[in-house]
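note to self: dont lose this again. the chain is below, predicted strucutre after it. 560 aa total, dont forget to put it in the shared folder this time
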Amino acid sequence: MLNNRLDAEQFRRMIVAGANRLEANKKEVDELNVFPVPDGDTGTNMSLTVMSAAREVLKTGDDASVEAVAKALSSGALRGARGNSGVIVSQLFRGMYRGLRGTEEIDAAAWANAMRQGVETAYKAVMRPKEGTILTVARGMAEAAVDAAIEEEDLAELLKLVIERGEEVLEKTPDMLPVLKEAGVVDAGGKGLLYIYKGMYEALTDENVSLELMDTTAAKKEEPTEGKAPAQAQAAFNTESITYGYCTEFIVHCAQAEQHEEMMRSYLSSIGDSLVVVADDDLIKIHVHTNDPGLAIQKGLSIGYLSNMKIDNMRLQHQNLLVQEMPQETEASVEEAPAEHKEYGFIAVSMGEGLTKILKELGVDQVITGGQTMNPSTEDVLNAIEKINADHIFILPNNKNIILAAQQAAALIQDKEILVVQTRNVPQGITAMLNFASDFSAEENLKMMEEAIQEVHTGMTTFAIRDTHLGDFEIHKDDILGMLDGELSVVDQDVDVVSKELIDRLVEMDKELFTVYYGEDATQDSAQALADYIMQKMPEGEVEVHDGGQPLYHYIISAE
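---
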């Protein structure tokens, strides 16, 4: 089948197929991610970006022109851009839109020109572009398109040649970046870009490719369909090697955005690196790695208002604590000042200053003090809801005894959508927050969060307040109790004995990431001793220790 000219409908099919192909293989791309920092999220960020673009494209009507589809592609990618590679992809699409302006049908020459302009736009957007990255792969593919378009009229054949050139350049990226060679991997962003183009090629060669986007909640669990990435690549890097610790992203909405573009680029380059600043009509998309994200945000506020804010602590990411979608309100703005309207808000129940701090760092707007012996009321939940100016509010009860109160409060609210995630402890609440993605709908996020918490197992050590008998256990006052997933599992008079027994049972569940939260009656040293015990049992696992500050519970130990 010849594809000498493409109309808007065929163009849409290509975009959707490209998004689906990347989504299906994003895990593989994540595992390749070691540059610019080993945060393991390039595939996810790129997929979120391209999925956002594809959704916008699907909104164009049946009578839309090629130019209209290209504009939707550019706008959707820019507004949904996540991460360094995601922003670069958005610029490739932005340049493609510029190259397709006024085009009624796409021929080989038009496509080659669009790819060329995409690369030019992307290189201009990056402050200090490095070779051996997605940019290098994109340039090689664009050059192949320009060369092929001289004689090749069939766009499917042209894309085949483009992909072949991209594969060749990708294999050379370790020779361009020593960090890739050290880890034994190719560039993650370049790999992701190739998946997009492979999907586009399929749309031209397979008439059965549909316009229906992949279910991203299901795809999240899929294994890579092509190749096997070396997951141990992340271990080749030290957290201390990260110079700028916070990956900071936001959109500035302002008039005459392009006039402010260079000013923002100049200022942000003075406080960080991995900088991408791009303007489009009335907004500027910002991506920067810095040690002071507040300064970047303040600069953005000086010229307009902000949206889509995300700040990730990359040092914590390297330890698999991925901080996602962190709204950057100060405590005063949450508790006292009128809250700025946003799409999503979060309420969580917590006990202990340390746990509360972690939840707030993950983006929780209102934390209600509560726990096993002080369950908040429906009114407490309603008061927290009232303080959040958001269309959709997620409630994390973090205790089975608080779920009902949260559900009752939700039923009383008419002007906001209230979604109760049935978290039964704080570790589940933390996991739920880590699995939230603003690019998805509220219902999709609820599903993802509830699926994620099912993978979390939690052990807790506390003490008996009276003599009693429970099941097979004879319990005496002040005995140490070990609770595993809410059920009494161990009884002894020694905290360490109980804690280690819980750890042994968690280890048997074959989990990889353990977290020890020590309470107000424990110490960091004692918690670290438990972490060392876990590492003896699970040498291949990962262990984190946090000051939870929780009362009543010496330790909360999660495994996932």
